[in-house]
TrEMBL record:
The lineage of its organism: Eukaryota, Viridiplantae, Streptophyta, Embryophyta, Tracheophyta. It is found in: Golgi apparatus membrane. One of its GO terms (biological process) is retrograde transport, endosome to Golgi. InterPro entries: Got1, Vesicle_transpt_Got1/SFT2. Keywords: Golgi apparatus, Membrane, Transmembrane, Transmembrane helix. It comes from Musa balbisiana. The keyword Transmembrane helix applies. This is Vesicle transport protein. GO terms for cellular component: cytosol; Golgi membrane. It is a multi-pass membrane protein. The keyword Ligase does not apply. Pfam families: Got1. Residues 1-28 are annotated as: Disordered. Belongs to the GOT1 family.
Length: 196
């Protein structure tokens, strides 16, 4: 976790006599959340980064742009799911794709998104995802979603270990994902690289 320092505003109850506590309050102090907020939903988001069979937890600050990005990404996945359920409805799938990509750009940033899709390791997934995206927009949703699904799996295959840790922490479903055959599947298909 990076050590960020914030400067607290100098709040004085009376202007005539500044107290010793005001001098301490105006000094830079390390910004640390209370212990109960570290894994919570407060202003932190927990992301797990897989690095050589060890999961490291990295926390980053959640600003309004990232909240909007996560919301757009969630709506994109929801509309894509609805589009598939309603027999590959072109409008819902196109809206889901646009919302998903715009949410991804707002969540991790435009530069990081472009770097992620432009990595040489990700060319196969980027081309198939982009071609599927184009085919959905043009009006061929079935072929487009097949290509998009393949590209999505290739692009985001490095997140299997992150998904496994997240699913194991869900109260009721976590028991299923902690079974040896499920954990061996995630270990086998997890991948050693971190996609972003």
């Amino acid at each position: 976790m990076r050590d960020e320092r914030i400067s607290r505003p100098n709040h004085r109850p009376s202007e005539s006599h500044p107290s010793k506590s005001d001098a301490v309050a105006s000094a830079s102090v390390p910004m640390r959340p209370p212990e109960e907020e570290i894994g919570g939903v407060g202003w932190l988001v927990d992301a797990f980064v897989a690095k050589e069979d060890v999961l490291w937890m990295v926390s980053f600050e959640m600003n309004d742009q990232k909240k909007i990005g996560l919301g757009l990404t969630g709506f994109g996945i929801f509309f894509s799911f609805l589009g598939i359920i309603f027999f590959f409805d072109k409008a819902l799938l196109a809206m889901g794709n646009i919302l998903f990509l715009s949410g991804l750009m707002l969540t991790i940033g435009l530069k990081s998104t472009l770097q992620f899709f432009a990595k040489p390791k990700n060319y196969k997934g980027t081309i198939s995802f982009g071609a599927g995206f184009f085919l959905v927009l043009v009006g061929w949703p079935v072929i487009g979603m097949i290509l998009e699904s393949y590209g999505f799996i290739v692009l985001f295959s490095g997140f299997w270990s992150i998904l496994a840790v997240f699913l194991q922490k869900i109260p009721i479903l976590g028991w299923i994902f902690q079974q040896p055959f499920v954990t061996s599947f995630f270990d086998r298909h997890g991948g050693k690289r971190v996609p972003v």
